[in-house]
Design goal:
Distance between the termini: 51 Å
Largest sheet: 6 strands, parallel
Number of helices: 14
Radius of gyration: 22 Å
Number of strands: 18
Oligomer: single chain
Shape: globular
Strand content: 15-25%
Strand order of the largest sheet: 2-1-3-4-5-6
Bound molecules: iron/sulfur cluster
Structural class: alpha/beta
Helix content: 25-40%
């Protein structure tokens, strides 16, 4: 039996696509092995979100070739889509596929094996508006599954390469999503994370008046309600949403579906309106804050997490102080911090007032200090609050951990029968970055 190994870089969507591609190989009789075990076929699913990611992809390709000199090497994904010539120039790559048609990967590999000729399947993203159905029916985790429901982005934030790597918005067929969720419910998975490149755009391209579109969901909230209606689904999360997607009506519908985890990941990127405009983000601080208040009216204990870029071109100390003041004002429960990374091919890469690396580093450190204080303050505010936790398998034989709905990690003494179950109780004291949990007796 031939063996296949995967090396995946990047986001939840890339992880999902690698799992789906691995399943396609399994269905064709391949045996999956670890990336350090030596394999007949080696697949690298690339990322290009920063130049660091690009470098890691090149390293991974060279290493795969060095460690598996006889292996057939397939390189796919975002880096291939935006820089095929660079990947091709590394040498020793047998299959090149971008971010479309990865459902053909096993055919491409077997074509190379049969003919000895390299296969390239690169699509011009401007010509494609369809969603590649690449589903999964098993999941690595026993508790939670990420479900890819949307592809592409047309926001064109000035620092971001993703629209050029992933192309136009495209929403997955609802029936395919629901069918996948039912398959995973049958495998005992309790929690579903709806994810995509710009998941808030789900259904948005279905504007044209047509019989098919008439039936199709036009908004993410319709899909959440459809997934929530499946028996056996116990909790639903959204990977990240765009502030403008939030409305009081949708928040009420999320609450009413009874299975929505009260955690909102709303990318902020900067707390300075001047910088938000230069980033081509589609909101200002006032709108962002308004959405936070709307969320808190319906979900008063919601976990609010975000992403912030520090050191964007033109960001002064005063702008950075605006960001510090704004994250305090919101009171985030967690902040992911990214020093600005110049991406060739994006508008911001041409901006003249680039910020020195030392200043970016200093700002990242200062924001990280603020982040810890805000996260601990949120955790302390939750002490004594009722919560439901989905406990995970985990390695530890004496303790077990899991997430509350509002995305706090808690820990308690291990009880085998409670693993992979939603357990009710109260949040206990904080110990460092972890919270204790007191289950209902
Ligand atoms: S919304 Fe902006 S940052 Fe996010 S993927 Fe689209 S272009 Fe990139």
């Amino acid at each position: 039996m031939k063996t296949v190994a995967f090396y995946t870089l990047g986001c939840k969507v890339n992880q999902y696509e690698s799992e789906a591609m691995e399943e396609a190989f399994l269905d064709r009789g391949y045996r999956p092995v670890g990336k350090d075990e030596g394999a007949d076929v080696f697949v690298i699913n690339t990322c290009t979100v920063t130049h660091v990611a690009d470098a890691k992809c090149r390293q991974a390709i060279r290493r795969a070739k060095r460690k598996n000199p006889h292996a057939l090497v397939a390189v796919v994904g975002c880096y291939v889509q935006v820089a095929p010539e660079t990947v091709r120039a590394i040498g020793g790559v047998d299959v090149l596929i971008g971010t479309k048609r990865r459902d053909r990967i096993v055919d491409a590999v077997e074509e190379v094996a049969a003919t000895g000729k390299k296969v390239e399947d690169l699509v011009d993203l401007n010509q494609v508006r369809t969603f590649d159905e690449l589903g999964i029916s098993t999941e690595l985790s026993t508790t939670r599954a990420a479900i890819k429901v949307q592809e592409g982005c047309e926001m064109y934030c000035s620092y971001c390469i993703i629209p050029y790597a992933r192309g136009h918005m495209a929403s997955r067929d609802q029936d395919a999503i629901l069918e996948e969720v039912r398959r995973l419910v049958a495998k005992g998975i309790k929690e579903y994370v709806l994810t995509g490149i710009h998941v808030a755009s789900y259904g948005k391209e279905r504007t044209a008046e047509s019989p098919e579109n008439a039936e199709r969901p036009k908004d993410l909230i319709d899909l959440v309600e459809a997934v929530a209606a499946i028996p056996g689904v116990e909790r639903i999360r959204l990977s990240s949403i765009e502030p403008r997607w939030v409305t009081p009506e949708k928040l009420q519908r999320l609450k009413a579906c009874g299975k929505f985890a009260d955690h909102f990941h709303l990318s902020l990127q900067s707390g300075s309106d001047k910088i938000l405009e230069a980033m081509n983000r589609k909101y200002d601080k006032a709108l962002y804050l308004e959405k936070i208040e709307e969320i808190r009216r319906v979900f008063p204990r919601a976990g609010l997490t975000t992403d912030v870029i520090v050191g964007f071109p033109g960001e002064t100390e005063e702008d950075f102080q605006d960001t510090l003041a704004f994250v305090d004002e919101v009171g985030f429960s967690k902040i992911h911090i990214f020093p600005y990374s110049k991406r060739e091919g994006t508008p911001a890469a041409l901006f003249t007032d680039q910020v020195p690396a030392s200043v970016k580093k200093d700002r990242a450190v200062r924001l990280a200090e603020r982040e810890i204080a805000l996260r601990h303050a949120f955790m302390d505010r939750m002490e004594g609050e009722e919560a439901q936790v989905l406990f995970e398998e985990g390695e530890d034989e004496t303790m077990m951990e899991g997430y509350t709905g509002n995305y706090l990690r808690v820990r308690m003494e291990r009880k085998e029968t409670w693993v992979n179950r939603l357990i009710s109780g109260r949040i206990g004291k904080r110990e460092g970055d972890l919270l204790h949990f007191e289950p209902e007796q």
